From TrEMBL:
InterPro entries linked to this entry: Homeodomain-like_sf, HTH-type_TetR-like_transc_reg, HTH_TetR, Tet_transcr_reg_TetR-rel_C_sf, TetR_SbtR-like_C
PROSITE patterns the UniProt entry points to: HTH_TETR_2
Name under which the protein is recorded: TetR family transcriptional regulator
Pfam families: TetR_C_43, TetR_N
DNA-binding region (UniProt annotation): 40-59
Residue span, HTH tetR-type domain: 18-77
Organism: Promicromonospora citrea
Length: 193
């Protein structure tokens, strides 16, 4: 085998290995959302139907597993923006996307509780600008469509909406009624006067 051959593109995961990884992510997500019991890697492995060794091969630390769950949720939120705009008028699509963003914020607080506070924050800081940019790019078409149909202000930048929503929802523990009030304030700020 030559050096050229060994430096080729990374190997794709086997189908069963990818299924195990996805099962672990789903089990971890459920455990983090539950919040009733302390977050346990052993319980996640059991719920995923795999051994603890399989968990550690995929996620060598609790922090890496929680960070992967968070990143998967961010990616889902990004992907959902276009689907919402396909199904709903722009103002409604943005409102629904913001509700899902609020859910992500609540999940993040649960993740912070599952770990030492600084760990997820430090992992997240590695790509905070990139993640914010990806979220902004995802909702830009909603904002553009809303500006065209008059349901949303035309002078709003997508990244400002992400920062506004994060500032309103991420730093504090809030109940469902308060989340709805905060989302109402955010969406009111985005409507034309």
């Amino acid at each position: 085998m030559t050096d050229e051959t060994s430096s080729a593109a990374p190997r794709r995961r086997r189908a069963d290995a990818e299924r195990n990884r996805q099962a672990l992510l789903e089990a971890a997500r459920a455990a983090l959302a539950d919040g009733a019991a302390p977050f346990s890697l052993e319980a996640v492995a059991r719920a995923a139907g795999v051994g603890i060794g399989t968990l550690y091969r995929n996620f060598p630390t609790k922090e890496s597993l929680v960070a992967a769950v968070y990143e998967a949720q961010v990616t889902e939120l990004i992907d959902e923006a276009g689907r919402l705009l396909d199904r709903l008028p722009p103002g409604e699509a943005l409102g629904e996307w913001l509700r899902r963003f609020a859910h992500l914020a609540a999940t993040k607080r649960g993740m912070l509780d599952a770990l030492r506070r600084g760990v997820l924050e430090s992992v997240q800081q590695d790509d905070v600008a990139g993640r914010r940019g990806r979220l902004a790019a995802a909702i830009a078409p909603i904002l553009d469509a809303g500006a065209r149909d008059g349901s949303l202000r035309g002078d709003v930048q997508a990244e400002d909406v992400v920062v506004l929503a994060a500032g309103a929802l991420m730093p504090v523990e809030v109940d469902a009624a308060r989340v709805e009030r905060l989302l109402g304030l955010v969406t009111d700020a985005l409507r034309p006067a």
